[in-house]
Amino acid sequence: xxxxxxxxxxxxxxxxxxxxxxxxxxxxxxxxxxxxxxxxxxxxxxxxxxxxxxxxxxxxxxxxxxxxxxxxxxxxxxxxxxxxxxxxxxxxxxxxxxxxxxxxxxxxxxxxxxxxxxxxxxxxxxxxxxxxxxxxxxxxxxxxxxxxxxxxxxxxxxxxxxxxxxx
Length: 167
Hints:
This protein is α+β, with helices and mostly antiparallel strands. The chain has one domain (3-162). It is built from 5 helices and 8 strands, in the order E-H-E-E-H-E-H-E-H-E-E-H-E. A hairpin with a 3-residue loop joins strand 2 and strand 3. The longest helix is centred in the last third of the chain and has 16 residues, at 143-158. The termini are close together.
């Protein structure tokens, strides 16, 4: 797990909310604190959909794709006043997580991995990103954590989002 402070909030917010840079993620949870506090649970309510949709490939994830919810989050954040606070908990899509770990030639049973997580927190002045790895069961190896930490730093650099590690 690492923590990174974003040093160009404008570039980061553009990539997060207006561009497709984070479209390979799913939203677990969002909290946006402006004049009121908005809380979004990213878990999909499959019972909302007709049976033929529920059981099809139209709902491939248990969480809402970021690409489908970022517009709502953008509308809640934009305006004359800066938000007091926001937090997003994102998961890398499972197929992307598996591909990342396969490319690293990880000797891991992918069914043990629950998620590669990216926590984004804005406190009114700074944005901090924290990585995490969630498993279904206890594992001894921390290789997946290390690979995920390096991948996020590479990802930010590729997207030209300036950051610095926090101690």
